[in-house]
Specification:
Helix content: 40-55%
Largest sheet: 5 strands, antiparallel
Number of domains: 4
CATH class of the largest domain: Alpha Beta
Strand content: 25-35%
CATH superfamily of the largest domain: Histidine kinase-like ATPase, C-terminal domain
CATH topology of the largest domain: Heat Shock Protein 90
CATH architecture of the largest domain: 2-Layer Sandwich
């Protein structure tokens, strides 16, 4: 009795139980006690394992020899978007991206056959919403004491973000490798770190020849100081956008390039270097030189033709006995001179679409001042902005007519100052001519003045509004977009 009592007290060891077996006393109590303790330990371990299974941050599944899901944890449900009831009984290959099925299937067959005990693959798994998630899968086989396959435990890590980052890196690398622009990176000391194939073709250096060397090997002697300014901007987190400059190839020849430089930052936002994109603009520069030659030739011919036309008009004016004819010929000569002034501005720029408003006003006003005589001064207000080339000739003729009208009628043929300008208010330009004369009523003189008729006709061509104000001074204004 005492032996049985002692046998059921807690803390009985396996050695004590064995001694009881040898001595033949209280054997049932000792064995029962050990069995209870083992059952409690097993139950506790099982509960702990189950909790780990349910709360693991990775997907876990048990799979039979045919690849059917026997058990899944919540994280696997979250990864696929399906509930446990929807997943259990499904094949692990059903939701696999078609291109990834065969590798997984073959490896699983080898595992069931005992050729491998564990394998790992990366595969895409179709989610319930129709999309795919990348997963890193490790499958481990579980066998009985005789080596027979019981089931496989598959652990799945969601690797979608890593895969997207890898694809982004591969995509960027592909863009850099196949780019038609030279793409170079350097550190904050100007030392070359990377060099793409286009850079090899553009500058003549292989990557191994320049990586680790200063970027200044590409700069001709008179451009060495450029790198100092570029690095200063990069260190401040600033970039350089489409800077046109000259660089030197390995063979010493010079090349025109457009350079864009951007700071490179680390994960914490600190500037650690710079990326440079160099575009060959040699052909464009050559085309611009050719265009310049053609424009100069055209300008020369137009100028000669206008000078010849002015000479003919002057000769005709001298020879005609009619005072009215002389006035008309003089007006025509002055209009040709205004157009010539506008033409010089147009052909003085590389831009085939736009001209500078300030240069235009200055050229036309100076020409008109010379034609009107030494006693007339034209005070030209500085103008800001650019105008399309198709407006140049109409505006030149309008401005000339308004200046001529102000000199003849505002100043009554005497000496004085005429004020002219071109201002901008938002998208609207206002061309004005102002004098100190008494002014005129536009409606009453429009039919009697051929000059004002020309102004109004050209205003319609420009879709502009023309008006005359008489107070406090006479001001003629043209408003246009």
């Amino acid at each position: 009795m005492s032996m049985g009592k002692a046998a059921i007290e807690p803390g009985v060891s396996r050695r004590t139980a064995a001694r009881h077996l040898r001595e033949g006393g209280g054997i049932n109590g000792a064995v029962d006690c050990l069995g209870d303790r083992a059952e409690k330990v097993s139950r506790r371990d099982g509960q702990r394992l189950a909790a780990t299974y349910e709360h693991a941050a990775i997907g876990i599944a048990e799979v039979d020899k045919d690849g059917r899901l026997l058990r899944v944890n919540p994280q696997l449900c979250a990864l696929t978007g399906y509930s446990a009831d929807e997943l259990i009984g499904r094949s692990i290959f059903d939701g696999t991206y078609p291109d990834d099925v065969e590798l997984d299937r073959q490896q699983f067959r080898n595992q069931v056959a005992g050729e491998v005990s564990r394998y790992s693959i990366a595969k895409r798994i179709r989610r319930k919403d129709g999309g795919f998630s990348w997963a890193s899968v490790t499958s481990s086989g579980v066998r009985d004491s005789r080596g027979r396959f019981l089931y496989a435990v598959r652990v799945l890590h969601d690797s979608s973000e890593r895969k997207r980052a890898e694809y982004a890196d591969q995509w960027l690398a592909s863009i850099i490798e196949s780019s038609n622009d030279a793409i170079i990176s350097k550190d904050l000391n100007g030392i070359i770190a990377t060099w793409n194939p286009r850079a090899e073709r553009l500058f003549g250096y292989k990557a191994e020849e320049v990586i680790g060397k200063p970027i200044t090997i590409l700069m001709p002697p008179d451009r060495q100081d450029e790198e100092v300014g570029i690095l200063e901007k990069v260190r401040r987190g600033e970039g350089v956008d489409h800077h046109e400059t000259v660089r030197q190839r390995k063979d010493g020849t010079l090349i025109d390039i457009s350079l864009t430089v951007s700071p490179v930052r680390d994960g914490e936002g600190r500037v650690i270097g710079a990326s440079k994109i160099a575009r060959d603009i040699t052909e464009r520069k050559q085309a611009e030189n050719q265009q310049r030659i053609l424009l100069d030739e055209l300008n020369h011919r137009v100028k000669n033709n206008m000078q010849m036309l002015q000479s003919l008009l002057h000769s005709a004016a001298r020879e005609t006995p009619s005072a009215e004819a002389r006035t008309a010929l003089a007006d025509a000569s002055q209009r040709v001179a205004a157009m010539a002034a506008a033409q010089r501005v147009l052909y003085g720029t590389f831009d085939a679409m736009w001209f500078d408003a300030d240069e235009f006003m200055s050229a036309v006003c100076k020409t008109a001042e010379q034609m009107l005589g030494p006693g007339i001064e034209i005070a030209c207000e500085s103008a800001a902005g650019q105008l399309s080339n198709d407006k140049a000739m109409p505006l030149a003729l309008i401005l000339n007519e308004l200046l001529t009208n102000a000199a003849r009628h505002g100043l009554k043929g005497g000496d004085g100052v005429i004020r002219a300008g071109l201002t901008k208010d938002g998208e609207t330009f206002v061309l004005y001519v102002e004098d100190s004369g008494p002014g005129f009523d536009l409606q009453s003189v429009r039919k009697r003045s051929s000059g004002l008729g020309l102004v109004q006709g050209l205003a319609r061509q420009l879709r502009a509004d023309f008006e005359v104000r008489r107070q406090p001074t006479t001001r003629c204004m043209l408003r246009f977009q």
